[in-house]
Specification:
- This protein is of the alpha/beta class.
- The protein has one domain (8-126): Rossmann fold (3-Layer(aba) Sandwich).
- Helices cover 42% and strands 19% of the residues.
- The chain has 5 helices and 5 strands.
- The protein has helices at 16-28, 39-48, 65-75, 93-102, 115-126; strands at 8-12, 32-36, 53-57, 80-85, 107-110.
- The chain has a 5-stranded parallel beta sheet, sandwiched between helices.
- The termini are close together.
């Protein structure tokens, strides 16, 4: 990549294991990653710096992914958003992710997903080839 500016990605996930896995994978691909444990922490991060991409869970305590997407679209209208969900006992992931599309998520991904699926979605959203 040379001296190119590294894209900033905000990873928002209330499950520490999933958040660390996603953030670690993206950092390993050369991205500058900021982590947030929920939507409220993510909104605070949006106030502090700009991001090229937000990768967010949908179901989270305090401020969920849909509220975060709405706030992000106001705070940083050009940011790309990748929503991810595995669903809930009374709400299938497909339904949740369709809702995120209504609130302008750019792309959706179903949990569990492979690192390659995540990488391909990020590369499409940032319009750049994925580093090895």
């Amino acid at each position: 990549m040379g001296s190119a500016i590294r894209p900033n990605i905000l990873v928002v996930e209330d499950s520490p294991a999933v958040r660390l896995s996603v953030a670690g994978y993206l950092e390993g691909r050369g991205f500058d990653v900021t982590e947030a444990e929920n939507g409220r922490a993510a909104i605070r991060a949006l106030d502090r710096r700009s991001f090229d991409l937000i990768v967010t869970d949908v179901l989270m305590p305090e401020v969920d992914g849909i509220e975060l997407i709405k706030a992000a679209r106001t705070a940083q209208p050009d940011v790309k958003i990748l929503a991810m969900s595995g669903g809930a006992p009374n709400m299938p992931a497909g339904y949740l992710l369709k809702m995120t599309r209504m609130f302008n998520a750019d792309e959706i991904i179903y949990k569990p997903f492979l690192n390659e699926e995540l990488g391909a979605a990020v590369a499409r959203l940032l319009d750049q080839p994925l580093a090895n």
